[in-house]
Amino acid sequence: MVQRILERGEIESLDHNAIPRLRLPAADSVFKARAARLRRLAANEIKGTPVSPEFSGYLSLMAALVDAQQAIFVTLTSDDAPLPDQAAIALAREHAMPPLLISAERPAIWRNILTRLLTQLQTTHPSPYITAISTELLGLEPAVLESLADAVLTQRTEFLTPSQAPFIAAALQVLWTWQASKLNLPDVPTLEIGTLCPVCGSHPVASVIRIGGQSQGYRYLQCSLCASEWHMVRVKCSHCEQNGKIAYQSLAPDDDATSTTIITEKPENKANDPQKVARAETCDDCYTYRKIFNQEHDYDVEPLADDLASLMLDVLVTEAGYARASGHPLLWFGESI
């Protein structure tokens, strides 16, 4: 069967009730798939996403961290991370608010998750760096850790140490992803604003074009915290929601084959094109960008992992004058890239 590419006007006029508006995280595969993808990216096996030897080591560390997330995730129970009761869920639906809102009181179990993550990493990925980070974080008072968690959830980078923030974010991801995986779709309302996660209210880390079933060919934003994915039409800025000045930038080898540059996407849509696996969707209305990954060109794309690995694309798009729309939970610079 030949698939037809929809024009922009046709996309906007689709009956969105027929499109799966939300994809809750699968309890058995989120962290497992993410760790596997990070290892392939670290090994420089993904065409179109070059990874330097220096950054490969960091990706390998993050793969070990995600393995630890998976190991802890499967042990959690509803006693550890209780869901909101039916009255709270009904209230969230009534007011079109996320049921697992990041500003609500969070279960203290997240601090135990952080301890377990660091303890496992000291066993599976021992290094002076992990020892130092573990000593720092495990020596902090609960009130300080809670303040750091608030800063991570609101992306207030001025209050964070870039070396500590990824591990705090990882602990929070385990908690929120577990809770999100236990929700029922009717529990989650459609928000008035389409640029925040309808499950928890966090920013998306990236977007992905999915294939298969009812989601075939549709673009979803993936939450940086709970891994839920919500539908947003293509060719639309995921930051300001304008659609008149959108362009797509991807990496292409320079003539000397030793470096890369960004190119604006060409109209050809050949299958399995490495240049279209990872792209930056830039907007000349708000001058921000967010990356978009295409499962049509690489079935195994994992938005959070691929976004982390494609740092070169961030650097070049930023040099072209665009600001990143939101940060990455596993890589912090103390300020936006």
Describe this structure in words.
Keywords: Cytoplasm. This is Formate dehydrogenase accessory protein FdhE. The protein has 337 residues and is an alpha+beta fold. The protein has two domains: 162 residues, FdhE-like fold (Alpha-Beta Complex); 121 residues, Alpha-Beta Complex (FdhE-like fold). Helix content is 36%, strand content 13%. It has ten helices and nine strands. Strands 1, 2, 3, 4, 5, 6, 7, 8 and 9 form a nine-stranded mixed β-sheet that branches. Strand 3 and strand 4 form a beta hairpin. Helix 3 packs across helix 8, helix 5 crosses helix 8 and helix 7 crosses helix 8. The longest helix has 21 residues. The chain is globular and about 50 Å long. The N and C termini lie far apart (43 Å).
Task: Furnish the topology, listing elements before pairings.
Layout: H1 8-12, E1 22-23, H2 30-42, H3 53-73, H4 86-94, H5 109-124, H6 128-138, H7 142-154, H8 165-181, E2 204-209, E3 219-223, E4 229-231, E5 246-253, E6 260-264, E7 278-283, E8 288-294, H9 303-309, H10 311-319, E9 323-324
Parallel strand pairs: 2-8, 8-9
Antiparallel strand pairs: 1-4, 2-3, 3-4, 5-6, 5-7, 7-8
